[in-house]
């Protein structure tokens, strides 16, 4: 049975009744196959699974989509039931932040200012603050985050390490549509024309990754991906980094990351690649 838990007081009671290992999957709702993959992974690692559904105002910039972000709690509950989730914690903004914006927040450090952080000031501070709070109220042994938000996963891992949160952070592979588009709650914003163009992002990235396998440098891969992107993309960045988001290696495992807007919709994606010696 899946219980809907509306506030922190009720969560404390539900959590106290859980014995054995507890896994948490944090979401902003509008659940899709990518979230289901997180829930299944969590299920395999714990006796109880808690899913949190909270559209966190702290991580949205003033011109971003907080107001229009899809809110679909009934459908989300149905997904959680199908996936055998024990509890869905869906608090109100007032329950999470009773005094308004919290005065004490998590500072993501320098890694929070690159890539996504450079284009979304305050984003990782907002994410890490709510993640820290949700970890404290759910007290999980393990928490699963999608690789789709690769930098977010890295930042959550870094916070758990640096601040000694007693939780194991698991990264789960990105789930894609058949045509390669990474599943995202924001894909519903795409017009038919934009949706048709969107898989070109992953195709360009894969083409870049295969070039890397043939000895192309990180700089050449980056230039190639940019040249192969579908028309109409307003690019924020294409970058090749090390797997932990440091400088691109001259040889060995790396990560290729993309962010840009198709019309009014901001999309991100990333894939692993290996830079081979020439
Ligand atoms: O990835 C998300 O949906 C959000 O950033 C998260 C981790 C639930 C924090 O609000």
Question: Can you walk through the features of this model?
Answer:
- The chain is an alpha/beta fold.
- The protein folds into two domains: 3-172, 3-Layer(aba) Sandwich (Rossmann fold), CATH 3.40.50.620; 185-275, Pantoate--beta-alanine Ligase, Chain: A,domain 2 (2-Layer Sandwich).
- The chain is built from ten helices and nine strands.
- The strands form two sheets. Strands 1-4-3-2-5-6 form a six-stranded parallel sheet, with helices on both faces. A three-stranded antiparallel sheet has the order 7-8-9, covered by helices on one side.
- Helix 6 packs across helix 7.
- The longest helix has 16 residues, at 123-138.
- It is globular.
- The model has no long low-confidence stretch (mean pLDDT 98).
- Bound molecules: pantoate.
- Residues 26-28, 56, 59, 127, 130-131, 149, 152 line the site of pantoate.
- Pantoate (PAF) is lined by residues 26-28, 56, 59, 127, 130-131, 149, 152.
């Amino acid at each position: 049975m899946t219980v809907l838990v509306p506030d922190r007081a009720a969560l404390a009671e539900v959590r106290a009744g859980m014995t054995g290992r507890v896994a948490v999957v944090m979401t902003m709702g509008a659940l899709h196959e990518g979230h289901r993959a997180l829930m299944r992974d969590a299920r395999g690692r714990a006796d109880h699974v808690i899913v949190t559904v909270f559209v966190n105002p702290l991580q949205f910039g003033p011109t971003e989509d907080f107001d229009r972000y899809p809110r679909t709690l009934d459908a989300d509950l149905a997904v959680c039931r199908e996936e055998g989730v024990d509890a869905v914690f869906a608090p109100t903004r007032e329950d999470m932040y009773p005094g308004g914006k919290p005065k004490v927040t998590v500072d993501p450090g320098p890694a929070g200012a690159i890539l996504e952080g450079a284009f979304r000031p305050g984003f990782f501070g907002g994410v890490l603050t709510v993640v820290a709070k949700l970890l404290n109220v759910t007290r999980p042994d393990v928490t699963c985050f999608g690789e789709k938000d690769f930098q977010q996963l890295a930042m959550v891992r870094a916070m758990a390490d640096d601040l000694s949160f007693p939780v194991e952070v698991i990264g789960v592979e990105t789930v894609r549509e058949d045509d390669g588009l990474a599943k995202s709650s924001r894909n519903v914003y795409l017009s038919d024309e934009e949706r048709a163009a969107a898989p070109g992002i992953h195709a360009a990235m894969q083409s870049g990754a295969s070039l890397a396998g043939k000895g192309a440098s990180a700089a050449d891969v980056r230039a190639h991906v940019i040249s192969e992107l579908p028309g109409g993309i307003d690019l924020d960045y294409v970058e090749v980094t090390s797997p932990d988001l440091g400088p691109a290696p001259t040889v060995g495992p790396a990560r290729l990351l993309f962010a840009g807007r198709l019309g009014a919709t901001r999309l991100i994606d990333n894939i692993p690649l290996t830079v081979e010696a020439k």
